[in-house]
Amino acid sequence: MIYLDSAATSLLKPKSVGLAMEHALRTMASPSRGGYSAAMDAAETVYACREAAAALFHCESEQVVFTMNATHALNLAIHALVKPGMRILISGYEHNAVLRPLIAASADVVVARSPLFDRAAALEAFRSRMGECDAVVCTHVSNVFGFVLPIEEIAAECKRQGVPLIVDASQSAGALPIDLKALDCAFIAMPGHKGLMGPQGTGILLCNHATLPLLHGGTGSDSRRRTMPELLPERLEAGTVNVPGIAGLLEGLRYIQLTGLERIRLQEQSLLCFFEGCVRDSGAKIFFSAAPEAQHAVLSLIPGNGNCEQLAESLGRAGIAVRSGLHCAPLAHETAGTSESGTVRFSFSPLLTEKDVGEAGRKTKEILKNNYSL
C-alpha cells in the first residue's frame, strides 16, 4: 500500500515511536501518583515530552497541555475564550473541530471568506472584519486543499487590534515553523498523530491565555483543594494522561528536532509538486498553487465525472490510500465551490519516497484517464 492520507493521521512513523510506546506499556505507571520507579519513570517521560514540545514551539514547558487530539485541544481553547453571543471571526477553511464547538458555545460566527491560495486576500478578509469581532479562530493550513493561511500576519493584526487568536495547527505542526512567543496568540492547538509523528490519542494545546477547565478531577497534586489547580498544565489535565501515547509522541518530537523543520517542509513540498506533475493533464480538476508559500503537503482533485468516492475506491483497490468526501470541513468546500462533489485528497509524509509517490501518480493518472473522464 502507498499511504497518501497523512492529513488524517501519519501511518508512516519512525520506528522509535512504537518501541517507546511498548516500553511505556511494560514499565510505566501513573505519573505524579507515586514515588516508586514505575511512577517516576512515567513522570520523567511526560516532563521530557513537555520540554521537547516547548523547545519546538518556543514556549515554556508549563504552557504545554497534553490532550487526546486537536479537537480536544480546540474545545479547551474555545471553552476558555468564547462566551454565548460573542462574535467570532474564522477563515473560510475551518474544520468542524472549530465550527462545531463555536456553534455549541452559542457564538455568532463570522466567516472571513477569501479565494483559495490567495494569502493577501485572506489577510484583508480578516483585517476588514476583525474590528467587529471579539476573537479570531484560524487554521494555519487547510486540511482539504493545503492552503497555507498567512498566520503570522493575521496574528500581528490581531495583536494590533487587541483581539485574541486561537490557531488550529493540525496540518502544520511538525513541518512549518510555529512560535508561540512570536505569534503571541491565546492558544495553539495541534494533534500528536499527524505531523508530530506520534500515535492516535495524543494532542497538544499551547496556552498563552487564562484557562477554564473542561474536565475536573484528580491531578496528582494539591489534592486537598476542592477545585482544579490554578496553575498550568495541571489545571487542564484532569485524570491520568496517556503515558504510552506521550512516550511515542516524545520520539516523534525528537525525530522532528533531529531532522529539522526545513528539511521536512522541503521534502513534503517536493513530493506534492512531483505528484501534481504526475497527474497533470489527466482530465481532473486539480487544486494546486505554484507558489510554495501558499500550499503545503495536501493536494485535492475532482475527477472529470465528478464521482470522488468512486475514484477513491478504485485507488484503494490499486493499493493507494487516499480520502474522499468533505473531509470534516464543509466550510472549506463551500468557500472553494466543491460542496456538491467533495474532493479526493492526497496528502504527503516526509517518510514517503519519490518512487512511491511517482508510482501512485502514474496509477492515479491512468485510472483517471481510463475510467473517470467526462
What does this molecule look like?
With 374 residues, this protein is an alpha/beta fold. The protein folds into 2 domains: 15-259, Type I PLP-dependent aspartate aminotransferase-like (Major domain) (Aspartate Aminotransferase, domain 2), CATH 3.40.640; 261-371, Aspartate Aminotransferase, domain 1, CATH 3.90.1150. The protein is 41% helix and 14% strand. The protein is built from 12 helices and 13 strands. The strands form 3 sheets. The protein has a 7-stranded mixed beta sheet with strand order 2-8-7-6-5-3-4, sandwiched between helices. Strand 6, helix 7 and strand 7 form a beta-alpha-beta unit. Helix 3 packs parallel to helix 4 (96-104) and helix 5 (119-130) runs parallel beside helix 6. It is globular, with a radius of gyration of 21 Å. The two termini are 28 Å apart.
